[in-house]
Amino acid sequence: MSRIIIYNTSILTLDDEDTFYYPGTIEIQGDCISKIYKGHPDAELLSDASILVLDGTDKLVMPGLVDLHFHTSVAKGFGDELPLGEYLDQVWYPAVRALNQERTLTAALYSYHTAMRSGTTCVNDMYRFSDSLAEAASRIGIRAVISNEVALPQYKLDLIEDNEISYNRHHGRDGGRIKVWMGHEWICTSDVGLMAQVGAMKKRLDTGLHIHLAESREEVDETLARYGKTPVQIAYETGCLGPDVVAAHCVHLTDNDIALLAKTGTSVSYDPGSNAKLGNGVLRLQDLRAAGVNVGMGIDAFECENSPDMFELMKFGSLIQRALHQDASLAKPHDILRMATRNGAKALGFDAGVLQPGKKADVIVVDLTKDLMFIPLLKDPQRRKTMLESHLVYGCNGSAVQHSIIDGHLVMRDFKVLAIDQEQLRRSMDIMFETLAEDMKSLVIDTRAEQSIS
To answer: Is pLDDT above 90 for 140?
Structure first.
């Protein structure tokens, strides 16, 4: 059983007691954290050739980031000037219709690699061609929940049967590091009947569900016009809410919607960068948290955020709440960090997101000397902890992440993802998108026109 020790370091546990160690040591055995303590390990441990020892001097050890709403990326920087509806019709849907297993594998390796480089250790990825998604996650070593983009047949995405096949092939792969949930695109490419089938399949497979809800005002207005109910109400009535459900976006919620999310224990992914870039608005974060809803954070597709960096996302997610409400006391670093780590792990059912003995060893090591991002920094432990939380949310980016350990395995060392040739991956993505962009031209479907017919 493999062992890893990181010593003489700052350790931000994010546990219930808000424990902080400086200087401290963390020991990992197998896929779990075995010990965390103040001070240094015994000298014989540091000299044991069977143990991987990492010097934590001028480093910070913290839980890996959990991207609670993720789509593998294929067309970042393409069509950025478009609002949500036009963007989906002209860029996103044509791109994912043009996929095949080979293209998806390249895109997933690129997406997981770039996410991992900036501190993400777990993704909740709704995309297509799950054989390729699972293979990419297995090869690169990231923790992943994968799901399909289930929609009505005329939208030429995925069918509910595709998602069932995905579950049977890949759920529990790599010792449980890879899960398969049901996925539902959104009400605008679906109907009540299909949502009820998704809810029933989720129950039959005893798995989770990743769903888009109330992302745009247009979506809510169209749903009210068609059904006289909000998307959240329909999700509730069709069995698409619950403690094993992640609802992405949830920007346009009524008070009753929030009550339903809280009542069912549904988790929400706060996706501030995507919501802002596509002009959809700002999540009612304070109201959701006050109601007891578990809120994590997600990048969405790189196309919607143009960066996989959740450190940048944490900063923006905090600042936009303070700006909207004109209140500098909101979205504190202490809370935002927990949303991006432990809340996401809780939503996905992984025993991670916290540094504590017995928890899964999903750990990142941040270089506190990187580009002076963590200067100044006091030595007094309590004041150091407060300053570190502030620097992490407001003052740094993912380029400071030096090492990454997922499921007890060192998957990134000295800023390099070990399983991937980055230069080859860069070339493969460029070559692949040249051909995919041409194929996209013949795969545009006006979803608004399709919906008006249905």
So the answer is: yes
Q: Is the pLDDT of residue 418 over 90?
A: yes
Within a 10 A sphere around the Cβ of 159, how many other Cβ atoms? 15
Domain ranges of the chain: 3-63+359-417, 65-348
Fold of 65-348: TIM Barrel (3.20.20)
Cβ neighbour number for residue 336 with a 10 Å cutoff: 23
Domain over 3-63+359-417 is classified CATH 3.40.50.920: no
Q: What is the pTM of this model?
A: 0.96
Q: Is the backbone peptide bond immediately before 333 cis, with ω within 30 degrees of 0?
A: no
